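> call design_seq(struct)
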């Protein structure tokens, strides 16, 4: 089945053509440069840019795959969660396209598609496995019991890991998207001397809290600014990155042991983090687990991962119609 898939949940307009786990084309038009001047995504601007870009991006995806509209067997689209105005552009474009082509419309949950980024080019990866899903807005540990079946066993009580890294980066003057730049600058540090806290959580054993760590970085930087003191930016970056990785790794490895998973999967934008990948690889090796993470090009938002998940949603009977609507928040284990 050749699936034309669409992603517009945040600041990337992306269209891909995917056949099973093979990507025939994957076009991404990013708005990063435009949002950079505001230090973060401005939702209204994001929606307008998606509207301008989507037809061209779609044409380009078909062209690069060497296909025409008549070759398309289904249209898939990210319908939740995300920025509502941004999602609406993709959902309405997809509805119109599916209707005009007379092919099925497949609604895809954004976080499920981040997990499916791991399926591309990795034929041996099949559920069940344990997944650490870390993106700009979500931090979740989930049991992926089947392609469309998820059990959440831990999550953040406040900020997502990506949000913590982005805001820490922003207060040190690093440009958007901060997490990426923080990761690069952290590699220049020769120590991790700053006394940043290890947040403790009293709810579930595998839950997270990142807002205290974020606030500690903001206070550290503001206090130094007020006193006219310099901070060592690479060292702050390395310290906060280490704290975030400690929490993510401890909980994930602990959960894999307790729930008996031998396959551990990373997903979402923060899975591009170099320390997280390297340390997780070491931990998994020591514990006899197999580790999977997406290629860097599929870590951030893209439509190829939407297409990779879409076939499983379709097989499970998850077909949309003209009443499909965008939804800003929706848990990954929705039915
Ligand atoms: O998954 P994603 O592209 O968008 C959402 O669906 O949220 O994730 C974006 C997040 C941002 O917080 C960004 O700073 C972070 O992923 N990110 C990274 C790295 N690359 C992207 N965080 C840490 N290290 C990286 N190398």
């Amino acid at each position: 089945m050749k699936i034309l898939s669409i992603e517009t949940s945040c600041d990337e307009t992306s269209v891909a053509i995917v056949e099973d786990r093979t990507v025939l084309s994957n076009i991404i038009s990013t708005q990063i440069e435009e949002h950079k001047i505001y230090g973060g995504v401005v939702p209204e601007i994001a929606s307008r840019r998606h509207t301008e870009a989507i037809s061209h991006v779609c044409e380009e995806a078909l062209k690069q795959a060497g296909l025409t509209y008549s070759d398309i067997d289904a249209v898939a689209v990210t319908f939740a969660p995300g920025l509502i105005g941004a999602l609406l552009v993709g959902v309405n474009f997809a509805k119109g396209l599916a209707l005009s082509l007379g092919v099925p419309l497949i609604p895809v949950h954004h976080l499920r598609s981040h997990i499916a980024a791991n399926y591309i080019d990795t034929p041996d990866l099949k559920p069940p496995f344990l997944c650490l899903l870390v993106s700009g807005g979500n931090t979740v540990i989930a049991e992926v019991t089947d392609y469309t079946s998820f059990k959440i066993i831990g999550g953040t009580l406040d900020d997502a890991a990506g949000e913590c890294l982005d805001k820490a980066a922003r207060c040190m003057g690093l440009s958007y998207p901060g997490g990426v730049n923080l990761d690069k600058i952290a590699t220049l540090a020769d120590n991790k001397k700053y006394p940043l806290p290890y947040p403790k959580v009293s709810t579930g054993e595998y839950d997270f809290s990142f807002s205290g760590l974020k606030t500690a970085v903001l206070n550290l930087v503001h206090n130094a600014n007020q006193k006219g003191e310099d901070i060592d930016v690479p060292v702050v970056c390395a310290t906060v990155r280490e704290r975030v990785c400690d929490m993510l790794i401890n909980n994930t490895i602990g959960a894999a042991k307790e729930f008996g998973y031998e396959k551990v999967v990373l997903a979402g934008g923060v899975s591009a983090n170099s320390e997280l990948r390297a340390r997780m690889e070491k931990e998994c090796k020591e514990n006899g687990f197999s580790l999977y993470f997406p290629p860097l090009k599929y870590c951030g938002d893209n439509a190829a991962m939407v297409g990779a998940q879409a076939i499983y949603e379709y097989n499970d009977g998850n077909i949309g119609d003209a009443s499909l609507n965008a939804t800003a928040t929706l848990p990954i284990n929705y039915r």
